[in-house]
Amino acid sequence: MPVLPMPLATERLNMKPEIRVKQRESTQQGFTLVELAIVLAVIGLIVGAVAIGKDLQRNAAYQRLSTDFVQGWLVAYDTYVTATGRVPGDSGTAPTGAIRASVATAVATPGNILCDDTTPNLVNEFLAAGVGLPEGRNEAQRNRFVYLDANGNPQEARVCFQNVTWAEPGAAVGTYVARPRNVMVLQGLTPSLAQMLDSQIDTQNDARFGRFRESSQAGAHTTIVGTPWSKTDIWKFSDTSAPGANQDEAQVATVTAYLLMNR
Known about the structure:
By secondary structure, the protein is an alpha+beta fold. It is 33% helix and 17% strand.
């Protein structure tokens, strides 16, 4: 009769103690440095892919705000002027060419803003003239656009119109004068979004010159040098005069920009 093989458990018991210790140690070994490096590399790729995905999503929203929202309001403004023969908010019987000039002290003085919380109401003013408007936050707030800032927090851009002081070249070379001009007011822009719009509209990033300017620089006629935008995305919404401690979860500070109208 053939001899049956000894059970494995009995074999292990019959091993020498030093052999059993070595075998146990070999089964309890952790990750090697190569394996840890591979794991860390994979984690890094995943984190990088998530960050890139967020950037692509945010940039897509910025581009949609630029092409569909801002450009849509530019078209709506020109359509309104062509259809009515006057700028929004101006007098229908004695037009002055200034937005909401009826509430200004004089044509040469910047007038009050025309927006969705004023009388007349901006959205109703355009719709009453038969002008189609771009999609906004909702039917009553078509001049508002919701997007996410660099920290993933919601922001709201708002379009209004106003007659403001605008610096233009004077008669002498290198001099500037202030004149009243109609502009689109863009409120609630993060600094990175404002700079992107500036680069697209003026092909340069400068808050002082061009058709697209920061509101605080639009009428600056005593200087001829370029000026950077007053804030960057490291500013928190609560920061007023200087950026505070950088917090990734904080809502980014915003700026107001003016876009010069053709008429």
